[in-house]
Amino acid sequence: MSSQSKKSATKPPKLDKQAYEDELKRLQAELVEMQQWVVETGARVVIIMEGRDAAGKGSAIKRITQYLNPRTCRIEALPKPTDREAGQWYFQRYIEKLPTAGEIVIFDRSWYNRAGVERVMGFCSQQEYVRFLHQAPLLEHMLIEDGIILLKYWFSVSDEEQLARFKSRRNDPLRRWKLSPMDLQSITRWEDYSRAKDEMFVHTDTPSSPWYTVESEDKKRSRINVINHILKTVPYQHVEQDVPEIPNRPELEAEYVRPPRNDFAYVPDVAADLERAKVNGDGSGKKQGKKKKSKKDKKKK
């Protein structure tokens, strides 16, 4: 049995749904507290999310940012570089996305693309790859030395679980867009990506900027664990907030008359169909317009 198969065989049991939701909500409230501290103190936080395709990075980022103010918390998922960007210093377009005072930036994949997909798929030369492994720790040291809080997370998932998630995406029209030919290369090149990851860790897992591995066989566990680690690592403190008083609404001026509703265009109230369906006895909440044909009707046809 391979190491990956052993890992899959020892997959932890899924968390109790209610316990997960309660703990997630508690942690998300703490994230709001952390963001308030970041804004108040002018701190700068960079969170790098890396890992296998379908390892759960995106869903973790979604839960982290769900209640945060998007004005001071950004997600950066840079596309393929343009021709102009390809001629720049490799790190240049990432540096442009770094936070200013009072901001949090989460990189949904980062400059480590060079050590992962670019290395495996041959999108960079050997010289460019070696230069990256040398420069990345130096860059991160400078960021930390300048006061940026830098956290790097690697989401780890087994080959069996990754394949199951790919199949789930393929069968779900709402998530099918997440599948790309490049993603599927991670199945046939699993060992190549493993070797690239191991070599990347050797050069970039440093005392000042370590990698933190997130076990992601169960997505709910990984979300709880990574959020908890962020909160334990960022040295935030409670910041007293002035909660504004909601004023009483003044009395309407006598001369104001609202224009007739017919003068405006309104969005059709299709939601009312759901209520009518409920009154008509269809507990599913679906419209009554299209009824499923019975076998008897099909035979008649």
UniProtKB/TrEMBL annotation:
Extent of Basic residues compositional bias: 287-301
Polyphosphate kinase-2-related domain sequence ranges: 14-241
Keywords recorded for this protein, A-Z: Kinase, Transferase
UniProt-recorded Gene Ontology molecular function terms: polyphosphate kinase activity
E.C. number(s) listed in UniProt: 2.7.4.-
A Gene Ontology biological process term: phosphorus metabolic process
Keyword Cytoplasm: no
InterPro entries per UniProt: P-loop_NTPase, Polyphosphate_phosphotransfera, PPK2-related, PPK2_PA0141
Pfam families the record matches: PPK2
Recorded superkingdom: Bacteria
Annotated segments matching region Disordered: 276-301
UniProt record similarity statement: Belongs to the polyphosphate kinase 2 (PPK2) family. Class I subfamily.
Known partners and oligomeric status: Homotetramer.
Function as written in the Swiss-Prot or TrEMBL entry: Uses inorganic polyphosphate (polyP) as a donor to convert GDP to GTP or ADP to ATP.
Protein's UniProt name: ADP/GDP-polyphosphate phosphotransferase
